Amino acid sequence: MASEWGAVDLQFRWVLLAVFLWWMLLRRWEADGTLDRWNASRALGFILMVRTQRGLGMLERLAKPRRFWRAYGEVATWVCVGTMLLAGLLVVLSFGITMLEGGATDPPPPSELVAIPGLNPVIPLGWGAIAFVVALVIHEFGHGLLARGHGMRVRSFGLLQLGPVPLGAFAEPQSEELMRAPRRERLRMFAAGPATNLFAAMALLLLLGGLAGQFSAADDGVHIRGVVVGSGAEEAGLAPWDRIVSIDDEAIVNDADFRDALDGHNAGDTVVLRLVNLEGTERTTEAVLSDKRAHFAEDGWTTQQLDAAGIEEGDAFLGVQQVADGTVGIDRLAGPLAPGVEAPLTTRLLATPIHALTLIFVPFELQGVAMHPVEEGMLAAGDGVIASVFGVEGMLVLVNLMFWLIWVNLLLGFTNLIPMVPFDGGHMFRDVAHGSLEQVRRAGKKTRLFSISGHRTEALAMRATSMTSLGLFLMLVLMILIPYLR
């Protein structure tokens, strides 16, 4: 552990040195007028803000259906206000859990604390960089479209750079026009960026669900990801990633066949399994089935839970975990949109946003990949048009591109909706708080119960925003530091 932390410390010393040299270079460019010639400036001392007029013409053309974009902004506002409140609640709950646990978990390596492709081990350099650039452009174009939709001028687009690494992008509206705009129009403009990221993620997830139907399993049978210690499977020599192709000479094509085969047996029966391992070696073995209800009872399931799951005494249990057919990798990414899901379309669509949230954890679980390499190897091209054009390798490229675009758009959308300045969520929180206080002021004036001036409500909204931003910032900092202070 000491050598590991020594390597991390050395790595960050080099990072700090690189940042210092970059800061010196920016100061040199600022002094000799290079930044002025580039229409650039420094932010926070070491971040380069590069402005450009490119894209403004396209923005103007796209923003012409003003009524459409105003309606879009209204939908975006409702979506983002709800998500903003959820994001703030999740930060508070996460902080509470961290304080209760007292940093019981091991701290992550410092490299996992920065969302920089290539430096963070769960964000690959290639896919991560592509997805971040696309997501940032989508985000800022969303802001720009709503600004123009409400008649605000956009001075320029820009990119935030830390050396060669893009940290963000921005659309720069006329600040005076933005501050003078009605509160509802400002809300729509601030909501448009993160909402466009979230809507793009949902659209891409729908496309990923359609693409999942173009795959098929390369081989019949079901593979297993784990074996229960002391079970009949372990005694029979089964291992993770073994593929079960038959039980008692009954062919197993998919997981439904596997369940049906076991349903025909009872605890204590002996079954003959035909297996194929990762190397393609086929073998036959016998396994004694145990009692499924007894196993889950030992795992802590209550009688009510067992009855609700329909697990009865004497039900057969082989002792294998995560049994699935060859398309499990792509089906896991597609979630409720996978072709094998038997549910009404409305139910599947309603479940899609919830499934999208679970995708955020996939790179952490699989160490920076969208699908386990073994699961990729279990896929084959199906009979669809896309499969015939791209083949399995080409479709896997599309899957990875779509996944990382979904992942980064979700990350960017939710992060920007944390209700703290300078995020979009912080600006939205200020305007929502101001609007709520204005309603209270008008109610008090109408009923003559109390009187609050307009300047007072604005000052209270600013103070609430500042206190909320500071509180959430401290929570985030403590959640990062507590595991290291254990």
Question: Your description of this structure?
Answer:
The protein is of the alpha+beta class and 486 residues long. It has three domains: 1-37; 39-209 and 415-485, no CATH class; 222-321, Pdz3 Domain (Roll). Helix content is 57%, strand content 13%. It has helices at residues 2-31, 34-37, 56-62, 66-101, 125-149, 175-180, 183-212, 232-235, 255-263, 292-298, 303-308, 328-334, 345-359, 362-365, 373-377, 385-416, 424-447, 454-481, and strands spanning 40-43, 47-52, 154-162, 165-173, 215-217, 222-223, 226-227, 243-247, 250-251, 270-276, 282-288, 290-291, 316-317, 320-321, 379-381. Strands 6, 8, 9, 10 and 11 form a five-stranded antiparallel β-sheet that branches. A hairpin with a 3-residue loop joins strand 1 (40-43) and strand 2 (47-52).
Keyphrases for this structure?
486 residues; alpha+beta; Pdz3 Domain; 3 domains; 4-stranded antiparallel β-sheet; 18 helices; 13% strand; disordered N terminus
